[in-house]
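Minutes, project huddle
Topic: does the predicted pose make sense with potassium ion bound?
PN asked that the exact inputs be recorded in the minutes so nobody has to dig through chat later. Recorded below.
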Amino acid sequence: MKTELLSPTEMAEADRRAIVGGPFDGMGLMRNAGTAVAREVMRHYPAAEQVHVLCGPGNNGGDGYVVAGLLAESGMAVSLWASEEPRPGSDAAVAAAECPLQPAPLAALDADAGAVIVDALYGAGLSRPVEGDSARAIELVTARGLPVVAIDLPSGVSGASGKITGPAFRAALTVTFARRKPGHLLLPGRDHCGEVVLADIGIPDAVIAELNVRTFANAPKLWLPHFPVPGVDTHKYRRGHVGIFSGGPASTGAARLSALGAARSGAGAVTVLSPANALAVNAMHLTSIMLRKADEVSELGAYLADRRPSALVLGPGFGVGDKAREFTLAVLASRSGAGGMVLDADGITSFRDEPAALFEAADAEGAPALVLTPHDGEFARLFPDLASEEDLSKLERSREAAARAHGVVIAKGADTVIAAPDGRAAINSNGAPWLATAGSGDVLAGLVAGLLAQGMPAFEAACAAVWMHAEVGSRFGPGLIAEDLPQAIPPVLAELVAAARR
Ligand SMILES: NC(=O)C1=CN([C@@H]2O[C@H](COP(=O)(O)OP(=O)(O)OC[C@H]3O[C@@H](n4cnc5c(N)ncnc54)[C@H](O)[C@@H]3O)[C@@H](O)[C@H]2O)[C@@H](O)CC1
Ligand SMILES: Nc1ncnc2c1ncn2[C@@H]1O[C@H](COP(=O)(O)OP(=O)(O)O)[C@@H](O)[C@H]1O
Ligand SMILES: [K+]
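Predicted holo structure (tokens), as shared on screen:
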């Protein structure tokens, strides 16, 4: 599936440009859209006893009139219901006039078991919570558990943000056009869409390219050209060296999980940097991963200068406080050649009172690329104003955070958003709830660093790590604990390396 995601505004602009450039006018695009939806209804529900098509006042309703006409023509039993008449002169009004069926008022909607609902109430044009007859129709259909095929978006779901502010359909299938919208991937929208089918309605790729889209669905296509594939003549340090900071003796596991994530990503060497009092406990649990003492900033400086690590991770189990801030700022200021610094967990929390110091350090000339990996709680500590701004979507919030931090932000969760300071953003959707287990984020931080160390640019490394982490977790399934993740990476890595070689 194509990876660009269009906001409703960008989609309207694509429609407009496509209509100007041809070959289809607005009515032609609408016929193509309706035809695609009718095909999916017939494919998924060939035995439907009755299809109820619910039309709203805009062009989403217009698509509905086309669908109703085509399904009736194919011999299906179709009932048509409309909330309002389409605006005179609109494409929807033409579609309604061409439709062989007469609509009944939506207020009278009734539907029995065995029926299928086609939701053509609101699509990209949804501008406020659904009320009145449309709200009642959604409630009736939901209460009866009837399958819903949504046109473009389930009515009530915002295409821009995935937010739901009133009643909303829960579709079994959503057929959208040209490209998906952020609301198909962001929660709770994604959860209301069911299966999403993307239909080509004749908007040329060149029209989409002109829009310079900055939002993407996270998928290998997005970053595979940058994915590291070792050459036959490589050696371990050329495959990248990752340094991972350990916490004290009672909290070393998190750093080791990160270290395993980094090692399994294909980095050639990984070192755990440990306080003296945790060396013994770390040593007992590390084999291929190296261990080095680092209590003081001077020891950190010596490590950076001697071993020139290509990426570092600070945060998992590290402890919140001055030491985390000092070490982070020392790495960002070191100019030792490290390509990236992943700041996770306690590393993020340590900057809650002075985020500007972190962001300035990341902005300095020659600083390693900063990647922040906050879950919602950590995000709110570093960006309290963005977190509390109700009107912002997770996408907008993450994008603003990345610009402010001068770093890549991985806003974790079931709909992880990866945002770059240059405005690019990707939404991830291949995860599974099994990933919500202690230590899972530590492995992710290590994976990001491992890919950074192998030379992937920061945004691509972050997107690839999030996708691999999610893929590994969802393939593993129930019973997953964080220790399972590193070991389960190789089959996913093998597929990616094979695809990157092609
Ligand atoms: N030429 C085009 O622009 C094409 C548009 N297409 C369809 O057109 C849709 C977008 O059409 P529109 O921009 O007309 O938007 P919609 O059909 O989604 O709805 C817009 C209308 O509903 C009103 N409205 C919005 N939210 C409401 C609410 N909660 N309660 C009551 N009224 C509300 C708006 O004021 C406006 O009049 C897409 O989702 C897609 O299905 C497709 O036919 C492809 C071609
Ligand atoms: N419901 C979910 N679906 C998919 N992924 C999830 C879900 N919940 C959490 N995750 C992922 O699991 C990881 C949890 O990380 P984090 O919250 O830092 O936990 P920890 O600190 O215990 O490692 C993140 O990558 C997050 O995106
Ligand atoms: K709809």
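Observations noted during the meeting:
- The radius of gyration is 26 Å.
- The mean pLDDT is 97.
No decisions taken; revisit at the next huddle.
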